[in-house]
Structure formats: structure tokens, C-alpha cells
Design a protein that fits this description.
By secondary structure, this protein is mostly helical. The model has no long low-confidence stretch (mean pLDDT about 85). Helix 3 packs antiparallel against helix 4. The radius of gyration is 20 Å and the shape is globular. It has helices at about 5-10, 15, 40-55, 60-70, 75-80, 90-105, 115-170.
Amino acid sequence: MPKRYFKKLIPNPEKLKSNKALAILGSKIYDQDLWHLNRKSVARAFFVGLFWACIPMPFQMLAAVFCAIPFKANIPLSISLVWITNPLTMPFVFYGNYLVGSLFVGGHTDKAFQMSIEWMWEKMEHIWLPLYVGSITTGLIIGALSYIGILILWRFHVIKRWKLRRKLKK
């Protein structure tokens, strides 16, 4: 895993403690487990980050931080994964979420769909339920698949490294 690369990007704990803006998150934010890269914290970060990336709401990064703390997920990775839904990808992701939600709720898919803010606000009373049901469903599925995938990939990487070490010892 690119553990060494991520370690360079993660801030120093002493530097974090001197940041007054982080005080609103409480003292738990300084817990070493939330900043350490290991198999479980990275897998949890993928679950938290990708789940919140699928939810259409402002301040997704704050939601990811507040979820990362009790789940003991890696905070920097959780925050960065939320940015998968950025202004360029949001319309496509949320429209896909709306279609998934329409399957469950039975909402109608409007043939006259327009990718504009005006159209969204005009149709909001009809699309909010399928959008959020689809977003939560998609977020849970993608989060769970990424959690399982990271655990499996990390394990395969460790096994590969063990085999390489054994080979080098001989």
C-alpha cells in the first residue's frame, strides 16, 4: 500500500494541537488512531468517505470527520474521499443516486431532465425522496464494498510481501 506516500501528507500531531480551529471538534480529534494508517483505519476511512461522498448535502467533509471519530477511521483519508463528488462529478453521481432511489421508492424518471440548478429547485418536491433514498443506498453499498475491498487488497499485499521476504532469505 502507498503508506509511505500518505505519511508524508498527514500533518504532525503537535502541529494539529496548536491549531485553534480544530478545538471545536473536541479532544478526541487528537487521538493517534485517527491519524494512523493501518488496515482497519484505512478501510473504515473508505467506508466513511465514500458514504458521505454519495450524500447530497453541504459540508460533507465535516460530516465525514464527525463520523470518522467514533468509527476510528483515518480522518485525512475520510476527508479526501469525500471530494470524489466535486462540482464536475456531482451531477452524474446524484442523478445516478436518483435513478437508484426511483427503483425503491417508485418515483418517476423525468424524460425532460435538465442539468441545471433551476430545474432541480423546480422539481425538488418530487425528486428529494428518491434522491436521498438512492444516495443512502448507494453510499452504504459503495462504502461496504470499498471497506471489504480494502481489507482484501491490504491482506493480499501483506501476503505478497511475506512471500518476497521468504524468497530473499533463501
